[in-house]
Design goal:
TPR_rpt; 1160 residues; 7% strand; 17 strands; five-stranded mixed β-sheet; alpha/beta; 51 helices; Serine Threonine Protein Phosphatase 5, Tetratricopeptide repeat; 64% helix
Length: 1160
């Protein structure tokens, strides 16, 4: 009788436990379940004892105490096996599988669920079978095996429908929706969650209805539809409150917090996450508590309060470790890595992301592994290690594509595009970002589209296409406004401001920066607010409104100090120091710049450190000139010395950045442009102090650095020990020793043309010549008080362009035959800043013209029409007087090698004329061009066995046909005289020419790899010198070739691996390219880097028939055994005696590199 009463008491305790568990009152539930357990043990009822252990496990599971839950479930299983209770054994395996799932032991979870499935099938328990398929699906999803997950959930759904189990059907729909949401298949996800919602409403399952609204909210959130997401989450919350379900209520607060976070409403997000946290603590839900800490950390991170974020993420990590939840431990480590990343502590960030990676690998979480790779890629990207970043992003891409995660795939493409942009591979960046945009559009991910357009804007801005950049940023802005993404809206305004600033439209830049600032202030986004203040300061500085600029910089400082952003703090001191230097307050400038330097050294920011050193050096340089004007020789010399010291230190920083780039050639080219000022200033200091040899070595260090590295490595040459490929003066002496040429090294040193004359057995001669009418005080030179047009480089550029106009290089030339495009009118589109270091300079014949299409409409074959101009001074003679006349008596050798700089690469030296004798320079001596002394050394000292001694590849008039060119279908006519040129040269050399349809890109690339002594192209040439060949694919109307099918690009030429003695580019513009500190970045440089010893190229669009005549004369002399420079000179002399005697027909051709002799 007593036993019967005790059993009844146990049943009552068990039922009360169930009630309190459903209400989320876990302490009370534990109390009653423990009473039930004690009674079952007392009455020795093993079946009920097993159930009691299972119930206690359920409570501890709900509390997030998974290890405790696991112990009770294992006791539950043990007794069920002992008593042969298959039903309870199946349930026990299900419970253990679920706890292993949350402990991130997914394979253990799968093992348990499979055992439960076997029991369910054996026992014919369709209900348990369906639920087990659902659990298996969740485990497979966690393992990244989403297709297996979908199959399991579909089996669960089918069983539920068969049994008429509406609740089970709704649960299966929820799980399917979740999988599709994770894969970025949002429409499929919505359909299943809507089915889930309809079922819950039909069976009046308020709990299920709340879950369905939450699921729909999550899908809309994934798509960037945040307002819609909030609407659903609020419906879910209302139901949770109505049914008094604290567990769902807490999750609703968390979901609402995340949605408001994504809207940029961080304080609202924090309020909701704190409510979620309080509920989790009251319920003793450790899992929910940990998630709330993580979400709070993310909100404070977005507010720029990184240290507060770290505190919350640390709490999240502690809770995850306590509960043994490896997945949450990984999430906490990821968030900590992101916080340290924002603080610029990249090594610490890497350590946390590597910990996440290791945890994800341990639990075989493929999506977690992929995300860790992506995060590591982002850190390496920010720390400037872009190749390493690409390596990680490619690993990330591989995994997300394998598991079918479209959202992750889009993100991976976006990250790869960002890395390619940083490497200067802008076309590749655009391709990746277009893939990101297309996937985001396909899966209707508005937020992803917004990011993609922002990134595409960055790509187009990087290549100076401000119009396209603006379009992309405006699309980005409109999407952000449509989805209510205030932070994204602010970023778009900031990007638009940068476009307008780069275009010299300062008022519009300020207008957009102010909108960006307004958004950041509304959102309490301190980091964004600080950035906006910096941008506004820069804009007002550009407008020379320095007081206003300083006001904004001060506001930036306040925020930087408040949020502990040392990088921004250093940026403030650098910007203010630069302003003070600009307005002539040099001592104040030095004080602020030294503070910038100190911070940069503390945080290991080499780039900013280099900037600070060079700016301090410039301050001392300008101070020295002030003292010189005051006749204070002592302070003048002291300041010059200080300037030299700081400039040297700046170069140590920059050289370290350069060396760290390894074989990243494009990055090397770009980075030298960022610190060319240091080289130029130090050169100027050495000139000022009469140290001409040091000045020459310094100007050399800023030239063709990347090309020099390539050639020295290719030909396995060395300089003095530990030189890092930097010449000593003894190396320069060896270059000219016993040579029959003189070298002219030109440098445009801001106020005058600096020239060094080098010749065998002659002392170094330095000449610093000023240009008539050009005078600029040193302290005005580096201020914003002058227009760019007053700079020396602009002055020379205009003379060079007048020279092209004087020769009428576009008038009368049948440019349509070998040039793809009309010459551009440079000045019609010129913007302020075009003549700064690293920008493209105008090319041949691009200035002072007004082009129309009238003559084209009338059928004229002239490509460029402009009015005749009369010149007071013949510009070809003016250039001779500037660059040759002062040195003429010192050019005693038979040949001259010219090492130009900037706009001098566009000077037709062959056509410069002595006004006294009427002779052209090319009549006086052969002329050769070299990018630098280092490249000249590498080419002339390369082993004779390195280059081929026989064979020739002659290409002429490829049959291009109808092709896609820059997004439009275009047809290119065959080149009659180019074909004749190729055939006659090939006959002269005893080889067969490749012409017409034979000259395909695929065939040519193969032939280039085979190796010949001479390579000759007589083809169409693009405006940047790239070579147009016959397409490698069919030209049928249904398959119009794209650019990749027929254009031989610079990168392809450079990667061709040729070892030719001579490459002749008988195409329009083949000597053109972007002019940077590296030299001309074009096709001629690409072939030198590939392995050519010398290249002949053209400076402008060439006449087809005249070029054929010139090339035949050139090869005739070459065949006689004359060296390349003498052959070029003789061909010019021969042309002057015939029909095509004007300079425009013979002067565009230049020889770059070594003076080779070819025997074919």
């Amino acid at each position: 009788m007593v036993t019967g009463y005790r059993r009844g008491e146990g049943n009552a305790c068990r039922n009360l436990g169930h009630v309190y568990l459903s209400l989320g009152k876990y302490r009370e539930a534990i109390k009653y379940y423990e009473n039930d357990l004690a009674i079952t043990v007392e009455v020795n009822d093993k079946n009920l004892e097993a159930i009691a252990y299972g119930n206690l496990g359920n409570v501890y599971f709900s509390l997030g105490k998974y290890q405790e839950a696991k112990k009770y479930y294992e006791k539950n299983l043990s007794i069920a096996v002992e008593t042969c209770d298959k039903s309870e054994e199946g349930k026990a395996y299900t419970r253990l599988g679920t706890v292993y799932q949350v402990l991130s032991k997914y394979h253990e979870a799968v093992r348990c669920h499979k055992k439960a499935l076997d029991i369910a099938v054996d026992e014919g328990d369709k209900s348990l079978e369906g639920k087990t398929y659902g659990n298996l699906g969740n485990a497979y999803q966690s393992l990244g095996e989403c297709q297996k997950a979908i199959k399991c959930h579909e089996k669960d759904l089918q069983l539920a429908i068969t049994m008429g189990d509406k609740a089970g059907e709704g649960n299966a729909c929820m799980n399917l929706g979740n999988v599709f949401d994770s894969l970025g298949r949002y429409q499929d996800a919505k359909q299943y969650h809507e089915k889930q919602l309809n079922i819950a409403k039909r069976i009046r399952d308020r709990n299920g209805e709340a879950k369905a609204y939450a699921s729909l909210g999550n899908v809309h959130q994934s798509q960037g539809e945040y307002s819609k997401a909030i609407e659903y989450h609020e419906k879910s919350l209302a139901i949770a409150v109505a049914i008094n379900d604290s567990s769902i209520e807490g999750k609703c607060y968390g979901n609402l917090g995340n949605a408001y976070h994504l809207l940029g409403k961080y304080h609202e997000a924090i309020t909701y996450h704190e409510k979620c946290l309080n509920i989790a603590i009251n319920m003793q839900d450790k899992s929910g508590e940990g998630n709330a800490y993580g979400n709070l950390g993310n909100a404070f991170h977005s507010l720029g309060e990184y240290h507060k974020a770290i505190k919350y993420h640390g709490k999240h990590l502690t809770v995850a470790k306590e509960t043994g939840d490896k997945k949450q431990e990984g999430n906490a480590s990821t968030n900590l890595g992101n916080a340290y990343q924002s603080l610029g502590e990249y090594q610490k960030a890497i350590e946390y992301h590597e910990e996440t990676l290791n945890l994800a690998k341990q639990i075989e979480d493929r999506i977690g592994v992929a995300n860790a790779y992506g995060n590591l890629g982002n850190v390496y990207h920010l720390s400037g290690k872009h190749l390493k970043a690409i390596e990680y992003h490619e690993k990330n891409l591989t995994i997300v594509m394998q598991v079918g995660d479209k959202h992750g795939e889009a993100n991976a493409y976006g990250n790869l595009g960002n890395a390619k942009n940083a490497l200067g591979k802008y076309l590749e960046a655009i391709t990746y970002h277009e893939k990101q945009r297309n996937i985001a559009t396909e899966i209707r991910d508005c937020y992803g589209q917004e990011n993609a357009y922002g990134s595409l804007g960055n790509d187009y801005q990087s290549i100076g296409n401000y119009g396209e950049a603006r379009k992309c940023y405006e699309k980005c802005l409109h999407i952000a406004q449509d989805i209510g993404d205030k932070k994204g809206e602010g970023n778009a305004y900031g990007n638009l401001g940068s476009v307008f600033l780069s275009s010299g439209k300062y008022d519009q830049a300020i207008e957009n920066y102010e909108k960006c600032l307004s958004n950041a202030v509304q959102l309490c986004d301190k980091c964004g607010e600080g950035t906006a203040y910096t941008n506004l300061g820069n804009a007002y500085s550009s407008l020379r409104k320095y007081e206003k600029a300083l006001e904004y910089y001060e506001k930036q400082l306040v925020i930087a100090v408040k949020i502990g952003d040392r990088h921004s703090e250093g940026q403030y001191y650098g910007n203010v120091g630069k302003v003070y230097r600009t307005i002539g307050k040099y001592h104040d400038g030095i004080k602020y710049l030294k503070q910038c330097l100190q911070i940069a050294e503390e945080i290991g920011d080499k780039k900013t450190e280099g900037f600070a050193y060079v700016q301090i050096g410039l301050c001392y340089c300008q101070l020295s000139y002030c003292y010189k004007q005051q006749h204070d020789e002592e302070n003048h010399l002291l300041c010059i010395k200080e300037s030299e010291n700081y400039l040297k230190k700046s170069l140590l920083c920059y050289e370290k950045l350069f060396d760290d780039l390894g074989e990243q050639e494009k990055m090397k080219i770009s980075i030298v442009d960022t610190f060319i000022l240091a080289y130029k200033l130090l050169t100027m200091v050495y000139i000022e102090t009469k140290q001409e040899q040091k000045a020459l070595l310094m100007t050399e260090r800023g030239r063709a650095r990347a090309l020099g590295d390539i050639l020295m490595a290719k030909y396995t040459l060395t300089l003095y020990p530990g030189s890092k490929l930097q010449l000593e003066y003894s190396d320069i002496e060896n270059i000219v020793a016993n040579r029959d040429y003189s070298i002219l090294v030109f440098a445009l040193e801001y106020r005058y043309v600096a020239t060094w004359v080098l010749a065998s057995q002659s002392p170094l001669l330095f000449v610093g010549g000023k240009i008539k009418g050009f005078e600029l005080p040193i302290n005005d030179l580096f201020s914003n008080r002058i227009d760019k047009k007053e700079l020396l480089v602009t002055c020379i550029t205009e003379i060079v362009n007048k020279a092209h106009d004087c020769m009428r290089v576009s008038e009368g030339a049948n440019c349509e035959d070998r040039s793809l495009e009309q010459l551009q009118n440079f000045y019609l589109n010129r913007k302020e800043g075009d003549f700064e270091e690293g920008s493209s300079l105008p090319q041949a014949g691009e200035a002072n013209r007004t082009e129309t299409n009238e003559n084209e409409e009338k059928g004229s074959d002239l490509r460029c029409i402009y009015d005749e101009e009369e010149f007071d001074v013949n510009p070809l003679e003016e250039l001779f007087d500037i660059f040759v006349a002062p040195l003429r008596d010192h050019l005693k050798q038979s040949e001259v090698v010219i090492i130009p700089e900037g706009p001098l690469y566009a000077v037709p030296f062959a056509a410069l004329r002595d006004s006294k004798t009427g002779l052209y320079l090319s009549e006086m001596m052969p002329i050769r061009i070299a990018p630098s002394l280092t490249t000249l050394k590498a080419l002339q000292e390369s082993s004779v066995d390195h280059h081929c001694k026989s064979g020739a590849l002659i290409v002429g008039s490829p049959d291009v046909g109808q092709v896609m060119f820059r997004g439009k279908e275009k047809g290119f006519p065959n080149l009659r005289f180019a074909k004749q040129e190729a055939e006659e040269i090939s006959e002269l050399l005893g080889v067969k020419a490749l012409t017409g349809s034979q000259a395909t890109k695929e065939v040519i690339k193969q032939r280039l790899r085979e190796g010949v002594a001479v390579i000759h192209f007589a083809t169409h040439g693009s405006e940047n010198g790239e070579i147009i060949l016959a397409p490698s694919v069919s030209t049928e109307e249904t398959n119009i070739p794209e650019q990749d099918d027929y254009i031989l690009t610079m990168s392809e030429a450079q990667e061709s691996g040729i070892n030719a003695q001579l490459v002749v580019l008988s195409c329009c513009h083949s000597g053109r390219g972007e002019i940077k500190s590296e030299g001309v970045i074009g096709m001629s440089r690409a072939f030198l880097a590939a392995g050519a010893r010398a290249v002949v190229a053209s400076l402008w669009a060439i006449d087809d028939e005249a070029t054929k005549d010139f090339m035949l004369k050139f090869y005739w002399h070459l065949k006689k055994g004359e060296r390349a420079s003498e052959s070029l000179q003789q061909a010019m002399n021969d042309m002057r005696k015939g029909t095509y005697n004007e300079p425009k027909y013979w002067a565009p051709f230049i020889l770059i590199g070594d003076n080779v002799t070819v025997f074919v």
